[in-house]
Hints:
This protein has helices spanning 3-13, 26-42, 57-63, 76-83, 125-133, 188-196, and strands at residues 47-51, 68-73, 91-95, 108-114, 136-147, 160-161, 167-172, 178-182, 200-206, 210-216. With 220 residues, it is of the alpha/beta class. The protein has one domain (3-216): Rossmann fold (3-Layer(aba) Sandwich). The protein has a 7-stranded mixed beta sheet with strand order 3-2-1-4-5-10-9, with helices on both faces. Strand 1, helix 3 (57-63) and strand 2 (68-73) form a beta-alpha-beta unit. Helix 2 (26-42) crosses helix 3. The radius of gyration is 17 Å and the shape is globular. The protein starts with a helix and ends with a strand.
Amino acid sequence: MTDESTENYYRLRAPEYEQIYYRDVPERRQEIDDEATFIRDLAAGKEVLEIACGTGYWTSIVSETAASIVACDISSEMIAMAQSKEYHCPVYFCQSDLNRLPFASNAFDLMIVGFWFSHHPRQEYQSFFEQIKQPLKKNGLIWLIDNNPPAEGPTIESHHVDEHGNNYKQRSLDNGQKYIIRKNYFTEDELVDIFARHFHLSRLVYKKYYWSVLLKSGVL
């Protein structure tokens, strides 16, 4: 029920992870495609750092226009899946804990964080924001995308909420193995409150299935 449980779940889920992007729900697919168009345009000509890169889904999209990408994940299984893909710009992979990013200051124009924020402990937001600001150039940009609560199919109720307000739910792999992982959901107002305290909130998209934000790192 801790970080180790979440890490193990995603390590084992690597071969089946990208199913989330191809569910046969046109509205859901359109929301992802709209964000892909946005981040593809935003990344044009930029030096990009991607944390929690997973299987490289967003890495591939961003590589169509970026100057270069450094993509990192704590899971060697996820990185292996990502390395098997073809990219359109130089892409360098590293295995790294996002709480201890091994990058110099002022190194990147843009950071992308796909589907991680909902797993990050609420009580550690301050340190997380300090970590992701550090490698960015002055007024560098941060793009995050994540889930809204399930909008179709069986809704899996919360397993429990901890003393910090983190929500936990049960997830199953294709083989039926079950894990309890941290998974927080947010209202639009909550996202504004969380991010506007630490960044300039340049863009917020809040739709049926997904939300995304674009943050400017130079604003406290």
